[in-house]
# Entry
Amino acid sequence: DGGITQSPKYLFRKEGQNVTLSCEQNLNHDAMYWYRQDPGQGLRLIYYSQIVNDFQKGDIAEGYSVSREKKESFPLTVTSAQKNPTAFYLCASQQGTGANVLTFGAGSRLTVL
Amino acid sequence: KNQVEQSPQSLIILEGKNCTLQCNYTVSPFSNLRWYKQDTGRGPVSLTIMTFSENTKSNGRYTATLDADTKQSSLHITASQLSDSASYICVVRDGNNRLAFGKGNQVVVIP
# Structure
């Protein structure tokens, strides 16, 4: 089955620790995205990548970092510089741009203790 | 700033009843509008896409409408089922390929 796999589903970390969320897709999509979802808010774009070895900051990139070394992989690192990291993180991919639909992963819920 | 406003924020409906969700946007220039369904703890899944020239589009028991003049869209759920309990998110794409997300309509269907 083609799709996007995010891991882990749930993650707990202590303040001051970095954590990396995995996102893998086998859809052969060019573009990949990371969104953050908080209760009562719309999805907010963290980072996106339209091609391997290239990525751009979204609206809330501070405290986050990404890499795109392979077409199918787009990991997100939540660093200790992120002031309020507890959230639900969604990875998505898209074939090309424009009207094409975003395909989302199942999400990763990060809780900072 | 492109904005998408959805109403009502949440609603509870009886199984078998109909409901309508609203989406108003200020996105310009407009490219397209999608409705996504997001089950609790899962990623959103696309239900339907509306372009400027389309007024109505159906996907099973889901019917979306678009009035590009008033910048309003609605999603109508017919004969609701328990599995319709979810958040429904309106997403508008502008002419610069940027997406604006609504906060979602939280629907709870009770037996």
In short: Chain A has a mean pLDDT of 93. Chain A touches chain B through 19 residues (CB under 8 Å). Chain A has no helices and eleven strands. Residues 67 and 74 of chain A are 6 Å apart (CA to CA).
